[in-house]
Amino acid sequence: MNEFPDSFVRNTWYMAGFSHEVGETLLRRKLLGRAILLYRKSDGVAVAMNDRCPHRFAPLSMGDRDGDTIVCRYHGLTFDGSGNCVRNPFADKLPRGACVQTYPLVERDGIVWFWPGDPEKADANTISDFSMLFVEGHGAPLTGYMPMAANYEYGTDNLLDLSHIEFVHRGTFAGRGVIFAGQHELLQEANRLQSNWWMPNISAPPHTAGIYPPDMRCDHWLDMRWDAPATMYLQVGGCPTGAPRDSGIINHQAHILTPETEGTTHYFWASTRNLPPSPEGDAMVHGLLSAAFNDEDKPVIEAAYRNLDGEDFWQAQPCFVGIDAGGTRARRIIETLRKGEKDAL
Ligand code: FES
Ligand SMILES: [Fe+2]
Asked: In the chain, where are the structural domains located?
């Protein structure tokens, strides 16, 4: 029986963190409303378990590591990486029911994926591909994390409707009207959406700054792939007008949202460019993206969510303007998945 709230899709993969975040130290992270402990065993395998001792419920993350086991800080019960109690300091006998629930984890493309649903259904083949973040000759992609005081679906609304660039990102990569000159298409294949913008024959787009002259005529695209419930890959591209796309400058970005609670979200992002590695270029891109997400997206998403005062999204009767079709479709798919899980119980 699953104990994660049924307001979330549970039989699916969520990002628990970046691989580089999970190591020797005990990392406590709330995922889908529940505190989870993440750490890496000495054989390199990462572990996820409830961050709650079954005795008097102390967070295990307050405890100590003894090799690959965790010693509870409160009364010393000790658990291994499978969540089994392996030591009781007060008796030889291990207390009944003293085990901690663990969860399937898979690491791929520098991301730790966590499965909160039925472990029997956890199929690693359904994990979204982010191998494009690893470009030959480059080191690890740039990464960032932003906590967001809003339900994760409000983040999806934002990312699947990039028309907000014109208004929200005036201080960073505002499109100077190019979104209005663009064409948008929304494609669906099962639980995957592709929300694409195509802006042909415009002046050089912001992500080519310093490489293409500003007045060079370019074709520009913003292709967003969404996998339910909130795993997104954005390809930001620009090439000389009429040239093949792969001859251009491409920025691969991951935007992955994981619910922390009903009203808060972990926003993980990563970025790689198909340009020769450059510390200055990386610092510029990291600064630009951090500023755009933290100073521009976050305040407006949080304020919009807060402005509903807990009212349900659909009850509030949002009006539709066309370019928001991606976010709306994503919400419908999530609703169908949630309903399917509830009905199956
Ligand atoms: S609360 Fe963990 S051993 Fe008592
Ligand atoms: Fe944005």
From this structure: 16-103, 132-344
Residues with CB under 6 A from ligand 1: 53, 55-56, 58, 72, 74-77
Q: pLDDT tens digit string along 16-75?
A: 999 999 999 999 999 999 999 999 999 999 999 999 999 999 999 999 999 999 999 999
- List, in sequence order, every residue forming a beta bridge with 226; answer none if it has no partner: 193, 232
Question: Counting ligands in written order, which one lies closest to the CA of residue 301?
Answer: 2
User: Superfamily assignment of 132-344 in CATH?
Assistant: Naphthalene 1,2-dioxygenase Alpha Subunit; Chain A, domain 1 (3.90.380.10)
89 alpha carbon to ligand 1 midpoint, in Å? 11
Pairing type for strands 231-240 and 34-40 reads unpaired
Q: Which atom of ligand 1 is nearest to the CA of 73?
A: 2
What does the alpha-carbon distance between residue 169 and residue 171 come to, in Å, rounded to a whole number? 5
Q: Distance from the CA of 47 to the center of ligand 1, in angstroms?
A: 20
Output the residue whose Cα is nearest ligand 1's atom 3: 75
Q: Which ligand is nearest to the CA of 255?
A: 2
* pLDDT per residue as tens digits for the range 291-316: 999 999 999 999 999 999 999 999 99
pLDDT in tens, 87-122: 999 999 998 889 999 999 999 999 999 999 999 999
> Closest residue (by CA) to atom 1 of ligand 1?
56
Residue 180 has pLDDT above 90, yes or no: no
* CATH superfamily, with its number, for domain 16-103: Rieske [2Fe-2S] iron-sulphur domain (2.102.10.10)
Question: Residues with beta carbon < 5 A to ion ligand 2?
Answer: 297
CA distances from 110 to 65, 88, 177, 250 (A): 24, 36, 36, 20
Phi/psi of residue 242, each to 5°? 90, -15
To 10 degrees, what angle do helices 152-159 and 325-344 make? Answer: 140
